[in-house]
Fold Amine oxidase domain-containing protein.
Amino acid sequence: MNYDVIIVGSGLSGLAAGIRLAMFDKKVLILEKHTVVGGLNSYYIRKNRTIDVGLHAMTNYAPKGKRSTPLGKLLKQLRLSHDDFRLCEQEVSEIRFPDKSLRFTNDFELLKQEVREQFPDQVDGFIRLVKKIESFDELSLTTSEWISSRDILRGFISNPVLIDMLFCPLMYYGNASERDMDFYQFVIMFKSIFMEGFAKPVGGMLYILNLLVDKYKSLGGELRMSAEVEFINSEKGIFKSLTLVGGEELAAVSLISSMGRIETLRRCDPNLTEGVSNDSEGQISFMESLFALDREPKDLGYC
């Protein structure tokens, strides 16, 4: 069967792309090699408890009705309502280092107060940094030059611990380089986490994924699970078809791959991995520990 577009991967990006294409009457197929959707942002079940993997909180929270915000624009693009996401704002988050800690909520004033209390000699520089971030146009596509965020922050803040504490959640949520990040990306993450804040849907990732899958299928999109791509077939640099593990071949006008650049290149036939070294795969891994408590966080001192 021929498709307008085949999408490899049913993570959030793959599902969102499928929804947008299906809205405009494209014949779309999403292929997923695993048995559950979600990719890096999924879930598993242990002892009747559903546990989120990857995305535990959604950034860029905005109240209902704020259509000009990133969240408002996302909902408009997917033709979903704010109520559909069933979002609950965070109570409080904490950046905890051995000798210092900073709390923050969706009210940015708390973080300012925390910096004032924990780093009183740095607060003026922090306020100046915030003004620079607020005036920076992160939506502009005219500048492609990489700018060191550490160099920028050192111009406002002299305490390296505070710099690292500000970097910590931003790099965890949205950075793929070691020790530093592009200031363009830093501004995006600073605004999305500290200035707009966190929220979580009632029901977690399972609910959000089911919401997106239902939306995609309601528009006529097709989804195939346990369908692993073995080869991406091309001719003279033009995509022709996919060969699945097992030998089935699927043709489409266009292909969108969300499995990552290196994995995509490895599956291309003719091979496109010449010059791709192990260093190209990236050097960063994130680990996390999850704890199932027998009491409420408030009972342990968290408000």
